[in-house]
Amino acid sequence: MARTLVTGISGQDGSYLGELLLERGDEVIGMVREAPEDARERLIPELREVELVHGDLAGPESLRQVIATVKPERIYHLAAPTFVPASWTDPAGSLHDVAGATFTLLNAVEQEVPQARVFLASSAEVFGDCGESPQHERTPTFPRSPYGIGKLAALRAAHVWRSRGLHVSAGILFNHESPRRPERFLPRKVTKGAARVATGLLDELEVGDRRAIRDWSHARDLMAGAILAVEHDVPDDYVFASGHGHSVGELIDLAFRLCGLEAEEHVRVNPAFVRDPEATAPVGDPSKAQRVLGWLPEFTFDQVIAEMVEHDLALARGEADAPNAPPAG
Ligand code: NAP
Predict the structure, then answer these.
(1) In the structure, what pLDDT confidence band is assigned to residue 278 with cuts at 50, 70 and 90?
(2) How far apart, in whole angstroms, are the C-alpha atoms of residue 267 and residue 275?
(3) Segment 157-215, tens digit of pLDDT
(4) Do the beta carbons of residue 200 and residue 328 sit within 8 Å?
C-alpha cells in the first residue's frame, strides 16, 4: 500500500487512475486547485472519500507545500491546462502551468521525498511536425503550440531529474478518451452530438476537417500503463498509444452508425472549425511499453467509441424524456 499523490484527480485521467489505485489498495491523496470541500462533489462517487489537498499549478509555493506535507511515496502528475488551442490565449501562462509547475514539483520531490517515484504526463504534442509516423520515444520533437513546448520541457525535466537520481518516468500520451472526457474535445463532441441527433435533441452536428488523423485509446488503459511505468524498477519514457491512426471522418461515421444513423445526413462541415492540416500523422508506436512493461490495452478504437456513444445515448434519452425537454436546435 503506497501513499500516492495524484495531481489532476478531478480530470478524466485522474478519475480512472484514482479508481485503479484504490483497486490496488493504495492510499490515494488528490490535489485540487480549489478548497477540498468544494472539489469533492465534482469527483466521481468512487473517489469522494479520498483525502484531498489544495494545490495550484499557478502557485509554486502551494505545490511545494503539498509535497512537504503529504510526503508521498508515489506521485502521478496529471494536472495541466489540457485544451491545446487555449494555450495560444496566454502562451506564457500555459508554459508556466505545464512546464514550470513540473520543475517546481520535481525540485520539491528532490528536497522532501527523494525516494518517491514520479510519473509525468507528457503528450504526443511534443512531436508536432517531426516528419515521422508512427512516433516512438526517440523520434525528434517539433511541437507546434505553447502547450506542446510545455509538454516537451516537462519531458526533458524528467530526464534531468532522473539523471540526478530521482525515479521519474514519463508517459508520452497519445489521445485518449472516455465517457468522462469533456465535450470541448472532438470525440466527446461527436458521440454526444450523434446521441442528441438520434434522440431528436439536435438537428445536425457541425464539425471541422474530417481528414485529420488521430491515435485514440481509452483513458483507463493509459492510466494502467502509468502504474506499470511507476512500479517498474528502472524509470524511463514510454509512448502510450494504440498504434493505429483513425480519421475524424471514421470517428464520425462510427458514432452515427452506432446510433442507427447515416452521418452524411446529419453532419455539416463548418469551415470555421477547420484547422491547418498536420504535416505528420500523430500515430504512436507503443512497442516499448508493450515489451518492457507488458502493457496491453483492453479497449479497441471501436470499443472506446461504443462506450462513449452508449453513455451519451443514455444521457440524451433521459434529457429527451424529461418534462419540458428543449426543442431540437
Ligand atoms: P483533464 O480532464 O482536462 O484534467 C486536467 C486536470 O488538471 C483537472 O483535474 C484540472 O483541475 C487540473 N488542473 C488544470 N489546471 C490546474 C491548476 N492550475 N492547478 C491545479 N490543477 C489544475 O485532462 P486529462 O485528459 O485527464 O489529462 C491528464 C494529463 O494527460 C494532462 O497533463 C494532459 O496534458 C495529459 N494528456 C492528455 C491527453 C488526452 O488525450 N486526454 C493526451 C496527452 C496528454 P480542474 O478540474 O479544477 O479543472
Answers:
(1) confident
(2) 17
(3) 999 999 999 999 999 999 999 999 999 999 999 999 999 999 999 999 999 989 999 99
(4) yes
Q: Which member of 10, 94, 123, 217 is catalytic?
A: 123
Active site residue 123: yes
> Cell match 524511463: residue?
236
**Whole-number Å distance between alpha carbons of 295 and 273:** 36
**Which residue of 38, 43, 62, 78 sits with most ligand 1 atoms within 8 Å of its CB, as the best mutation to test the pocket?**
78
Instruction: Tell me the pLDDT tens digit for each residue of 24-80.
Output: 999 999 999 999 999 999 999 999 999 999 999 999 999 999 999 999 999 999 999
How many angstroms separate the alpha carbon of residue 266 from the centre of ligand 1?
Answer: 32
Ligand 1 contact via 172 beta carbon (within 6 Å):
no
Query: Is 10 annotated in the active site?
Result: no
Ligand 1 midpoint to CA 317 (Å)? 29
Domains of the chain: 3-177+217-240 (3.40.50.720), 186-214+246-280+299-321 (3.90.25.10)
Q: Which residues contact 38 (CB under 8 A, 6 or more apart)?
A: none
Could you give the 3-state DSSP secondary structure of residue 200? coil
Q: Is-catalytic flag, 147?
A: yes
pTM of the model: 0.96
